[in-house]
Fold this sequence. Notes:
Layout: E1 4-15, E2 35-51, E3 56-59, E4 62-63, H1 66-83, E5 92-99, H2 109-123, H3 130-140, E6 152-155, E7 168-172, E8 179-186, H4 195-205, H5 209-214, H6 216-228, H7 232-251, H8 262-276, E9 282-284, E10 291-296, H9 297-308, E11 313-319, E12 326-328
Parallel strand pairs: 3-5
Antiparallel strand pairs: 1-2, 1-12, 2-5, 2-6, 3-4, 6-7, 8-10, 8-11, 9-10
Helix pairs in contact: 1-2, 1-3, 2-3, 6-7
The protein binds ligand DP6.
Ligand DP6 is lined by residues 13, 16-18, 29, 35, 107, 109, 141-143, 195-196, 286-287.
Amino acid sequence: MKSARAVAHTNIALVKYWGKRESSPADLNLPAVGSLSLTLDRLRSETTVAPADQDSFHLNQEPASGEVAAKVLRHLDRVWQAAGHAGARPTCEVRSHNYLPTAAGLASSASGFAALTLAAAAAFEYDPGRPALSALARRGSGSAARSLWGGFVRLDRGVLPDGSDCRAYPLQPQSFWDVRLLIVHTEKGPKAIGSTAGMQRSRDTSPYYGPWVDTSEADLAAAEAALAARDLPVLGDILEHSCFKMHACMMASRPPIVYWRGATLDVIHAVWRLRAEGLRGYVTSDAGPHVKVLCAEDQAEELAVRLRAVPGVHAVDVVGPGPDPTVEV
Ligand code: DP6
């Protein structure tokens, strides 16, 4: 094997992924719905995989152990198996650094597993092409499949039991549309539940889970058309609908899954008030209390200033569309 380094940027879903299909083995990690995302500039994971005397994982310069390290090493095993090499996987040193806003509680699994997949594949001299590597990244974390490209990306749900058609592909490149995403950091409370366990609970108990799955393809088709037309109000309407439908499905789970805090709703209402004043921002939010706001480049700074003034808001980051990942051997 060789030593390889990959850089992958994180992404935010505009049409959401929540829920998994049954699969065998379970770690195929097959989403029940497709999703559509924007890869973000600057916010990224940089990961090196190198030969070493024993397996180890360092995250942000610190040695990691327990389930975090185990997930990373299991993913190396998957990449090694996919590469079809004979014999046991060579022992590796993995070093990863996340460049994400400090203490933002933003998930690093999307950029993290994308960078790990690319670095490991290059280190193991395995080059099946980015679509197949996207399907492999998905097994680490569903959202990671989308971080294999910059710009706007779609992850198909797929229908094959082995998941080989469940991978992402680029819809529009980074340069296609100079939109901005504001990441509005609100106060945090105890995390409701991790997304993997939360998805299972929603599937098992939420009466809205079936309708959520059944209506997702129509949202994807409409979002893709709005994106191609660079139609911000139409795309904004779809992304808000997908977000609220997902959170309704979560909240109707038993016990309920509520990621929002008071400040989350205060920000959402502030965005809607400002929209009535002509500042066109559209909200989405994930498995946490923060709010993300999609808007045009020429309104981003003004919107950020206004949202920083909302009580309970700690910080607002303004981020543009991000690039494709890079790999160096
Ligand atoms: C709410 O990709 O973190 O952010 O596949 O179980 O690792 P696993 O889940 P993950 O889920 C992301 C859920 C979401 C919506 C989205 O990013 O599409």
